[in-house]
Amino acid sequence: MNEIATSKSAAPAPGYGLRAEASEFPMMLVLSFAYPCNALCPHCPYTNSNIRREYRDAPFMPDSTFRKIADEAGRFGAYLRISGGGEPMLHPQARDLLVYAKQVGCKVGLITNGSLFDDDTIEAFVTAGVDMIEFSVDACKPEDYAVVRKGLSWDTLLDTVRRTVAVRNARRGTSKIIASAVNQNPIDIDAVERFWVDGVGVDYLIKRKFLTWGANTELDDSRSADPAAYLNTDEVPCPFIFERLNIDSRGNVMVCGYDISANTRMGDVNVESIQDIWHGEGFRWYRQRHLEGRGKEISLCSGCPDWKYRSWDHNYWKVVRNAEGNPRRQDRPARRARRVPVPGPELSLRAVRGRGA
Ligand SMILES: C[S@@+](CC[C@H](N)C(=O)[O-])C[C@H]1O[C@@H](n2cnc3c(N)ncnc32)[C@H](O)[C@@H]1O
Ligand code: SF4
């Protein structure tokens, strides 16, 4: 574990506390940048809840809110993770705002379904050095893709990812190109990894645990292909409140990603500084209880089925490190998809590393 107990806002507890890199400012801001979507993925919490409807008055994060967040985060070199209840690339200013965030010093990670990339967008993101371009692929065959990514085109996705890899390689760009897949039945996630990493040439595949967001959605975990817990919630604090902060399109801060309906109002970034919210009474209260082993006394946390899938070790930072360490990047052209090698021990190891982001 690389975190240390130097929390400004909570009593030290052995081995846990604010991560060193988050002692001033969150390491990552997860932005619900857009709520509308052009797909209906059956595993998606937003396809399985009323949340999108509740955001009809605020479908996209306003330009001014985004720029205020980026300006503050950029001073700390923090990560902006651009995602949301829908497809971020539907945001009318998506391209300009991501490029702006890079210009003011942020690290930028985009999570996208890959359906809306034209050549200019790829060029702009690679040139600006968008750090992580994550394509949610979820499958390696058109027939599976049609089910798990309902409404989207397999051919478009494949073409888009191949073009993005090719442009990044040709420009010798620094962007990492990642694929992700939810580990759900009947998808063979190892075959998905081989197809995209070895066949198409992305830098890494993130294997996502199947989450349900508990009472916030209609989802159940019957399709999960990997329900093994990462941590014991009776003993280990939830890491997310010690490293990251979630913000909806209105600028409301949620205590964590489990509060997907934004019921906890930890602050408003339009009128408060993110740093003040991060060190404010609200987060102090949550962290203190988790460090004292009393997280289950909080009704939100006791009802969270996803806490056990958080990890202090298997996380986004590990994905970033592994993607950066992949020698395939830039040096070799992608191999043709159908020439997929037989899996070996190295592939299995990569699979273990890919979890929990
Ligand atoms: C909600 S989507 C929004 C961004 C974009 N529309 C996309 O699909 O990438 C963000 C990420 O959540 C993942 N996701 C959706 N449902 C999930 C579930 N039940 N468990 C784990 N991850 C899930 C998606 O695969 C995607 O990578
Ligand atoms: S594309 Fe993304 S936001 Fe849209 S339904 Fe699928 S997972 Fe949800």
Helix content: 25-40%
Largest sheet report: 9 strands, mixed
Helix/strand order, N-terminal first: EHHEHEHEHHEHEEEEHHHHH
The class by helix and strand makeup works out as alpha/beta
Q: Quick check: average pLDDT? A: 88
Q: In angstroms, what separates the terminal alpha carbons?
A: 16 Å
The distinct ligands, each listed once, are: S-adenosylmethionine, iron/sulfur cluster
Tell me the overall shape: globular
- Which regions contain 5 or more consecutive residues with pLDDT less than 50? 1-13, 329-356
The spatial strand order of the largest sheet comes to: 6-5-4-3-2-1-7-8-9
Q: Helical stretch count?
A: 12
User: How many whole angstroms does the radius of gyration measure?
Assistant: 19 Å
Q: What is the beta-strand fraction?
A: 5-15%
Number of DSSP strands?
9
Draw up the topology in text.
Blueprint: E1 28-32, H1 51-54, H2 63-76, E2 79-83, H3 94-103, E3 107-112, H4 119-128, E4 132-136, H5 142-148, H6 154-171, E5 176-182, H7 189-200, E6 204-208, E7 244-247, E8 252-254, E9 267-268, H8 274-278, H9 281-291, H10 299-302, H11 316-324, H12 345-353
Parallel strand pairs: 1-2, 1-7, 2-3, 3-4, 4-5, 5-6
Antiparallel strand pairs: 7-8, 8-9
Helix pairs in contact: 2-3, 3-4, 4-6
Bound molecules: S-adenosylmethionine and iron/sulfur cluster (SF4).
